[in-house]
Amino acid sequence: MVKVIIVFTIADLVLSLIYAKIPLFTRVWHYKRWEQKTCFQRFSESFFAVLIGFLICLAINHYHEVKNPTGFEQMLIDGDAEYLVVFGDEYVGDADLALEIKQGHSRDNICKIISKICKEDYIQKGSNALNVYTEGEAYIIMDGTVKIGKVTTFDRKFGMVLRFYWNP
């Protein structure tokens, strides 16, 4: 983002300096007014107006990104998906798998969701004796009397990430 701002400012600066000497994009009937202004006035009116407009657009875009969910997060909110796989070191960390679920679930519901996830074919963990319970802030996954993994959670803007750690 910083690179975009720097490149745009440099481009705006160069074009404004050129506009101060040569009447770029100036209509014939505005040429007399352009001639009456000093080079500094010509530079200022083109440089600062464009730069302020660009910064306003960036602020609106940033506000939109912060306040609105992404398409995948919207799928969780709308109920189109129960959970989604998330990628990136900031979400996965040292976990074996990271999934995002919708916020607002109780601890019991999260246990049921983890159990359902463990019974899915692509993870291939758990059997009919699968049990998930809470231990402090973590969720422990048991297969009968054998601990097969644990799940830790952390909140995101519009969802909750479940980090799965399987026992070797």
Description:
- By secondary structure, this protein is of the alpha+beta class.
- It is 47% helix and 23% strand.
- The protein has six helices and six strands; from the N terminus they run ααααβαβαββββ.
- A hairpin with a 2-residue loop joins strand 4 (138-143) and strand 5.
- The model has no long low-confidence stretch (mean pLDDT 82).
Give a short overview.
With 168 residues, this protein is an alpha+beta fold.
H/I helix tally: 6
Distance between the termini: 41 Å
Order of strands across the biggest sheet?
1-2-6-5-4-3
Shape: rod-shaped
N-to-C order of helices and strands: HHHHEHEHEEEE
What percentage of residues falls in helices of 4 or more residues? 40-55%
Strand content: 15-25%
Quote the average pLDDT.
82
Radius of gyration: 28 Å
Secondary-structure-based class equals alpha+beta
Number of strands: 6
**Segments where pLDDT lies below 50 for 5+ residues?**
none
Largest sheet data: 6 strands, antiparallel
Provide keyphrases for this structure:
168 residues; alpha+beta; 6-stranded antiparallel sheet; rod-shaped
Reconstruct the topology from this structure.
Elements: H1 2-21, H2 31-36, H3 39-67, H4 71-78, E1 83-85, H5 89-92, E2 97-102, H6 107-118, E3 130-135, E4 138-143, E5 146-155, E6 159-166
Antiparallel strand pairs: 1-2, 2-6, 3-4, 4-5, 5-6
Helix pairs in contact: 1-3
